[in-house]
Amino acid sequence: MDALVRDFLDTGELKGLSRYTLRNYRRSLATLERLLDKEFTEATHRDLNRCLSSYRAEGKAPGTVFRLYTDARIFFNWLESEGEISTNPFRKTTAPENPTPPVAVADAETIKKLLAVEWPTRFLARRNRAMILVLLDTGVRVSELAAMNTEDYDGKMLSIHGAKKGGPRTVPTGKAASIALRRYLRIHPGGPALWVGSKGRVTDSGVRKMLTQACRKAGVERVFPHALRHSFAHEFRLAGGSDSDLMYLGGWSSPRQLERYGAAGKVERAAAAHSRYSPGDRLASG
């Protein structure tokens, strides 16, 4: 591995980036290193454009090519901030098309089926129900969920310390999530980790595996943890929640980041808003 890439990844780890994010960076930069015929610090925008074109010519999906572009851009921004390059070639690099469709939100029927799944033990039933409800009710990232400790929950509020960015935050849990958490904690085996399994703390991949099993048992299409984060954003807005409150609760640092969250449900939200504020209904009844 290139020494600069190693330093970049170590810096990301110190900043609290998730293992999933760091793994994606590592893969993208390994791909870029393969496509380049020179050192990173010697690359020009023409070199990077050529690399992106070559990657696309390998038959990669547009979204995959765009991921290489965004990950490499973050790396070159870091190189510039470290003084390793005097001119950032990404200022002139052409961004590839990104026709990635919005992440589908899990509909109400799917959520109900996931929560109704029967598990082989009382412990798994309580833990998994609480996990799903916390993901849906708070919009936490899967890495933040896995990092939670028992001391982070006071019965009503969750303190989130494993934040990807923006620092720690405290979020409330609704009645359903609170009840599920308290029922789970009553049979918690002890120890600092909030979410535990047979081998100790449940990892990011462990959460994904649980949700995959739940979908299979429920007979629904696979739902990823991140889709529940999108569902949280959609349902919060649908109920009339403000974007400023949503930004805090979800740990987003700018309104721009919210644009893609819950985007798949924007038609439903617009229709719901229209039913409340319909100009025709209001004026015709006057």
What does this structure look like?
This protein is mainly alpha-helical and 286 residues long. The chain has two domains: 3-91, DNA polymerase, domain 1 (Orthogonal Bundle), CATH 1.10.150; 108-271, Intergrase catalytic core (hpI Integrase, Chain A), CATH 1.10.443.10. 57% of the residues lie in helices and 4% in strands. It has a two-stranded antiparallel ribbon with strand order 1-2. Helix 1 packs antiparallel against helix 2, helix 2 packs across helix 4 and helix 6 (122-138) packs antiparallel against helix 8 (175-185). The longest helix is centred in the N-terminal third of the chain and has 20 residues, at 62-81. The radius of gyration is 22 Å and the shape is globular. It starts with a helix and ends with a helix. The mean pLDDT is 87.
Provide keyphrases for this structure:
286 residues, mainly alpha, DNA polymerase, domain 1, hpI Integrase, Chain A, 14 helices, 4 strands, globular
Summarize the structure.
With 286 residues, this protein is mainly alpha-helical.
Q: What would CATH call the class of the largest domain? A: Mainly Alpha
Side-by-side strand order of the widest sheet? 1-2
Number of domains: 2
Q: Report low-confidence residues grouped into runs of 5 or more.
A: none
CATH homology superfamily name of the largest domain: Intergrase catalytic core
Helix and strand topology:
Elements (H helix, E strand, L loop, with lengths): L2 H12 L4 H17 L9 H13 L4 H20 L26 H8 L6 H17 L3 H5 L10 E4 L8 E4 L2 H11 L10 E2 L2 E2 L2 H15 L6 H14 L4 H8 L4 H4 L7 H12 L1 H6 L2
Antiparallel strand pairs: 1-2, 3-4
Helix pairs in contact: 1-2, 2-4, 6-8, 6-10
